[in-house]
Amino acid sequence: MVQVKLYDTTLRDGAQQEGISFSVADKLKITQKLDELGIHFIEGGWPGANPKDTEFFIKARPLNLKHSVLVAFGSTRHPDSTVEKDAGLQALVDAKTKVVTIVGKSWDLHVTQILGTNLDNNLRIIAESVDFLKSKGLTVFFDAEHFFDGYKANSEYAIQVVKLRLKLGLIVWCSAIQTVVHCLPKLLWPSKLSRE
Asked: Does domain 7-195 sit in CATH 3.20.20.70?
């Protein structure tokens, strides 16, 4: 029987709502409550992105979580950096969690316009980032950012990004985050759905 595992993003994604600003003490209390609920993975924040998240990971180390695993969130290396010199990847290592989630671009538009690199280099960036974190003994989850928009625009490339996780040994999962939920399955596969 397949076991469903819950991954909670309240402490990072949930804190992005207007008017919400968790203190470090708030985040520690919420972490303990999520652990009591039996949540498997708790995304604690983005160490290195702001001082509060960095402090949270330091203060969360002595927590005695009974059910949950604390996860640090970050991104793949910067296109102009190396994994050894990338401050974001180093902050993930310094968070001292057993599990990290890195977000990577799966939409070709974001690769070329936001990262300012080419599609092949983006795949190399993802692979190098994952390999570096795994070499530090970390379990790595990969978040294929804006996968559905990417699939709609260039399905071949979006699928190539997701398939890369298999080559990299990311056997746990690959999430397909859709921050703006406006891309319903019928918009992606209209002919297939109309036949079913």
From this structure: yes
